[in-house]
Write a structure and sequence with these properties.
Length: 169
């Protein structure tokens, strides 16, 4: 299974591609790609959203994931920020739908619990565990890329758990 994780943001949107190597003696996570879409603050919202859409669609076509995993919307005290984030998230969902890919959504607490073991973990802890779980030589270039990889890892862990529970019936 290959998962394309997306960490939506209004200035930086992270993406990460992780797959499971089931041919190994012990199934293991394999890092395929990670990066950050950097948006220009001077661009108007439609141009920024078009950039996110184009880059995500291109990456999905390049890496051919089986599924896209995205962080669920969290509630913010700032309605304007939440609305802008929702627009980016909508574009990410549209990119997945355009590529014909299923989407899984996870709450921030679930993602951190799955990767770090603690739902209120700091960004640095997430980066550290992503680096360890994927056996990377150094942490991802940005916190956004690390978060996107964490979202992909969360989906893989969740899918493995559901599969093992289904196998017990």
């Amino acid at each position: 299974m290959r998962v394309f994780g997306i960490d939506c943001g209004t200035e930086f949107t992270g993406y990460g591609v992780v797959e499971v190597d089931c041919d190994a003696l012990m199934p293991r996570l394999v890092h395929r790609a990670a990066g950050t879409i950097r948006l220009n603050k001077k661009d108007r919202t439609p141009q920024r959203l078009a950039q996110v859409y184009a880059e995500l669609t291109g990456m999905m076509e390049l890496y051919e994931p089986d599924v896209v995993a995205v962080e669920e919307v969290f509630f913010s005290a700032n309605a304007k920020s939440a609305l802008k984030l929702g627009q980016v998230r909508g574009v990410a969902l549209l990119a997945a739908a355009t590529c014909g890919l299923p989407v899984a959504e996870y709450a921030p607490l679930k993602i951190k619990s799955s990767v770090v073991g603690y739902g209120l973990a700091a960004k640095e802890q997430v980066q550290f565990m992503v680096t360890r779980l994927l056996e990377l030589e150094r942490p991802p270039d940005s916190a956004d890329a690390a978060d996107a990889l964490a979202i992909a890892i969360c989906h893989i862990h969740t899918a493995q758990t559901l599969e093992s529970q289904g196998g017990m019936r």
